[in-house]
Amino acid sequence: MTAFAPDPYDRDCPTRQLLDRIGDQWTVLIVGTLGDGPLRFTEIGKRVAGISQKMLTQTLRALVRDGILERRMYPEIPPRVEYELTDLGRDLAEPLGVLTEWATQHMDRVARAREEYDRAASGR
Amino acid sequence: MTAFAPDPYDRDCPTRQLLDRIGDQWTVLIVGTLGDGPLRFTEIGKRVAGISQKMLTQTLRALVRDGILERRMYPEIPPRVEYELTDLGRDLAEPLGVLTEWATQHMDRVARAREEYDRAASGR
DNA sequence: CTGCATCCTGCGCGATACTG
DNA sequence: CAGTATCGCGCAGGATGCAG
Questions:
Q1: Proportion of chain A in helix, strand, coil states, percent, rounded to 5
Q2: Domain of life, per the record (chains A, B) (predicted)?
């Protein structure tokens, strides 16, 4: 029996769409970071080190568009903008948390598997 | 308190590595497909429609290297090769299943959020 | 501070052709 | 059938500069 969704082969199936979204790693990292609560633009950028300003802007906008994040703008001088998970976003954070937990628990095994594989391959 | 792993900002942290892996959607789709049991190379290609032979080969090799899949070769004429989830792979399939389930349940809300967002944006 | 526009480069990936 | 090898393009994404 199939462990997964109907046909992930249909370009329009939800699974595909979600994968496209979490495909860029930034989505997952940002959602994870915001699990603590709302954060300002710059603050997110500092937490998710390595992300370019362009990708940050881009990813944030996409997430707001998807209803995962809410953007709250305070028309002050200087302007302040905060991003926060919506209910939907918090809901998504949960399965993502399961995944990251899996990662932290098993990635050492993956690392060992890689070493072994590479050693075997080079030895040939 | 942080909902996620230590620092996803470290390029070497397990979370990052996993994300890189599931980043290419093919990984998730292939692991999902193999949840039913072992499959032949060509069979996987047919199930995961849209994947090029190159990406199929590439992804399969990467997954074998990571110890997620096992490659079983039968030296017959014509040659037959089967891929199967390892214990580790089956273990990964579970959290992935949770994610895809989330997708099937909530992607309609995402779709609506997008429409609304686009409508508001274009109306301006 | 929080963006948006532009330019530019690398390389991911598809297409194609060839082997055992 | 199950791959490897090679070429070529498209576009994701980094760097830089400007705006409100």
A1: 65, 10, 25
A2: Bacteria
